[in-house]
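## retry 2 of 3
previous attempt timed out at serialization; input unchanged, resubmitting
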Amino acid sequence: MEFLIDAPNVSFCLVDDYVPDMVDILHICDPMSLPQGFDSPFRIFKGSNKITVTFYDLIPLHFYFSSWSEQHRNLYLLRLEQFCKSTAVALTISAFTGSDLIREKGISPDRVKVIMAGLNASTSGTRPDKLQVTDALNRLGITKPFFLHVGALDPHKNFDASAAAFVACREQATLQLVVVGEKAGALAGYEAFCREQNITDIVFTGFISREDLEIVYQEAVALLFMSKFEGFGFPVLEAMAKGCPVITSNVTSIPEVAGDAAIMLAPDDIAGIRNAMLGLLKNPELAEGLRQKGFQQAAQFTWQNTAEKTIAVWDQMLSDSQKSRKVATSAGKVQNRPHVLFDISVLGLSRLYESAKTGVFRVVENLACGLAASPDIKVSFCSTQHLSEHAPATIRACQEYLAESPELKHIPFFPNELPAADIFHSPFHALPDSTSGFRRFLTVCDIISLLHPEMFQGKAVNSLPRILASLRPDDQLLCISHATKQDICHHLTIAPERAFVTHLAANPDTFYRCNDTSKINLIRNKYGIPADTSYLLCLGTLEPRKNVELVIRTFVRLAKAGLCQDLVLVLIGTKGWGFDAVIQEIEGHTSLHNRFILAGFVPDSDLAALYSGAMAFAYMSRYEGFGLPPLEAMQCGIPVITSNTSSLPEVMGDAGIMLDPDDQDGLYRSILELYHNESLRRFLSIQSVKQASMFSWDKCVRQTIAAYKSALPHKDAR
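## retry succeeded, writing output
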């Protein structure tokens, strides 16, 4: 729940404190949940105007009604009747569930919206190595090639069909059937039966960790999922996402999830299931084809899509309603828009110094454009650099930047005197004394120079204390990651309610999957990357914190071992302090000079093609406030190897390979595996694009504006 608690646009209310119409939309996550002692949500929230509910399935009605107690049956039917009589809109997790609800209960199709569920993301953040795989399989008692069943063994799951097909296969192959799920109910009964009959090749693992489950999916010959009835079919989706071929049933919602990426059969077609199992064992090409189709099919299901479609339904409901909130009207928006004064000094400095086009520049540029486009605020620009010795040049550069920007040139710019406003926001520099009359916000990218001063020198060490010293007790901070917020609150004793998390993004106009081979070849030629080679890309300011030396040493080790002979290392980025150490590391290996390419600073227009042409991206930074380069690489659809420290796990999710920043052996193995394993590269490429879609500048701007509004007096509660 921490991510909800930290969100600036989330507040909490006890059920007892709820009154009708206190919100615009009321969403009930599971209207058919029947925990003992809990009242019906349709009674609690009676009188609410706009209600949506997530509807999963009607499995109890089709399979288990006769086995339930009369009290349980009556409670279930009452809840269904309450839903049907309400005005609530059902958001069903599959088209089949929607059709089933209409067919069984006769509700209007207008009250059903299909919003497919998404993929349950990995919690590990890393791809297991061979030792981890071996350890997990040994712990779970898996010693032979195996087929997999995941989930409960309730009657509708039809495990008997999978077990019968498995027994029929044992005549031709030495196998195991691995059953993953909590040892309760029917599953416990199956295990006891197998134990009594001395059946040892069916392995009941019980509940296992997410990390172990991912390994089991990756190592299985196939998932057997012959369910007779599903509302969605999460095991099918999870298996496909992990490269596990799927044999499943062709009924209810499962074809929607599996598409053409699985072998689908009638649930009780034992002979067909057996033949499919043997076919996968004997035909590696069939298995590999299903893996690749599975990766592509699974990539279509994301919680981001689910959230966006849900919000679209809510927006439509509000736009159709005659009782939309007054603040949603154009007049209300204009009347209640806060006036924000945003410091764009960094944009001016980027025109004066090419080296200033760092991650901070990208943040300020995209945030300025997003704020300027938002109808929810009024924005003006200023430059606090008028307080420094660089005033005239910086202010002139800011004016030139705005004049050349179609998105920003219409925004008022105040170079000296600051206008009246509600909020002053500095995205980088110290908060000036002249802004004391404003509600003030400071963006803090990181406090690494305080935590690890040995990683910096000169102004980089001295500037942060000066910036932080400008804070007053009532100022607010915008942190670009949860890791940065945690550092600030822990080390600077800042109250958590003063710090808001606003994740960054990669500009889709600059960072995208480039499929134009002619453009990629032109970029190769421009930067001297031989046409007959693959290349490993390493990007960032070339300084000790970025840990580029580890990548170089690992690459040298691979080259000297005679491995990856057509692989070159491309280093791009501006020269930071300690750059000489990078050069010395390379010059120490004269026989390998042609395997290193120092591209230096690369303009934005070249980055998409340069990223997209790479075999993989390596970013072993020791500490980050966010980690834009890995996100940019993922958005370009290439595999990423990065470190597992600070904010990087937030950015990467389960889409890349994460290692300790000093793990040279792990980096060595990862580069080697990516070089030789095209299937892994394709899988990580798909995962990269999916993970990158979780971040957008629109989202960052919305979070920023929500933080602004939370700091202002509420003029209109409605």
